[in-house]
């Protein structure tokens, strides 16, 4: 979908606009197809939906209701970006020229890249919190669990919200304890990564929780196949080429491989991997000065989270304003991102960090500790900030609050 400037004039096959955003309402890319969703989703809530702590309905609102007034929403698929001609090609031979372009296409889920998985979701024992179609299957599998392996996966690709694959693991473990099934559950986290978390301070805290709750973690194990009829999950050992291991499961939560939308692959605006190629401080394209990017579709070397997008939005606002006035952008993005690591039904670790994987905490307390306040920020405050702050342009991240709470010293 596209945001079109309100002052533009629309013609039958060609639209001229001064300012445009190539945009998708929260990852409408599924199985290689870019669909126009009529609903917009606050996906961070799905961690709690999959664990039965929240209902699915509050995560959704009509897309039209969150688009600013005075903005035209062109409901058409973007087929090609042509920055050399300042033009975007759409379906039905329509094209739109622009003066400034913001690319915010999100990323693409690739359930189909795991053999047997798409049809495996017909099984009541497999779920994924990453899709509107499969998040409630996670809760169903959790409720139906009797005994055996509960397996949680992390793929060998960049993902959005890298903490989410283990959040549902901690919540599932807590649910098993609450329902008296913990002694019958063997909880396994198979991750393609070599560490539990990329910031040492929070990794240390998570490893303590993992040890205390008797959770098994296998590093460099990547899910490649699901045999739903046999309740088997096949993992490749990334340290030993060609070696695989088969696990029986009673419950399986899958984090799918992810990648850039098809329209960005081999695009002049993208790097070799298909991500929009940006200056990491200004969010301006490295080659095209009137092209900008934000969010999961970019190659910014930070975690792909809603919190990162909030921080980026404040910088992008200043960058574009400066460029439009013929000035050099001075506001810089430091890579701020946040990941509220939910560890129980009333506790969370509030991880905040920058490009250098250094903690950049807002509150004047140790946020690596499990806290009730961190959970309520995740479950109650952040959805409100999203709907009424970020989407309306009022929330550019917590930097001003951090400066105030730390007396300007951090």
TrEMBL record:
Gene Ontology CC terms: mitochondrion
Keywords noted in UniProt: FAD, Flavoprotein, Glycoprotein, Mitochondrion, Oxidoreductase, Quinone, Transit peptide
Gene3D superfamilies, sorted: FAD/NAD(P)-binding domain (3.50.50.60)
Q: Where in the cell is it found?
A: Mitochondrion
One BP term from GO: sulfide oxidation, using sulfide:quinone oxidoreductase
Molecular function (GO) terms for this protein are:
FAD binding; glutathione-dependent sulfide quinone oxidoreductase activity; L-amino-acid oxidase activity; quinone binding; sulfide:quinone oxidoreductase activity
**Enzyme Commission designation:** 1.4.3.2, 1.8.5.8
Catalytic reactions on record: a quinone + hydrogen sulfide + glutathione + H(+) = S-sulfanylglutathione + a quinol; ubiquinone-10 + hydrogen sulfide + sulfite + 2 H(+) = ubiquinol-10 + thiosulfate; ubiquinone-10 + hydrogen sulfide + glutathione + H(+) = S-sulfanylglutathione + ubiquinol-10
Swiss-Prot/TrEMBL cofactor(s): FAD
Give the family this protein belongs to, as stated in its UniProt record: Belongs to the flavin monoamine oxidase family. FIG1 subfamily. Belongs to the SQRD family.
| UniProt function note | Catalyzes the oxidation of hydrogen sulfide with the help of a quinone, such as ubiquinone-10, giving rise to thiosulfate and ultimately to sulfane (molecular sulfur) atoms. Requires an additional electron acceptor; can use sulfite, sulfide or cyanide (in vitro). It is believed the in vivo electron acceptor is glutathione.
Name-wise, this protein is: Sulfide:quinone oxidoreductase, mitochondrial
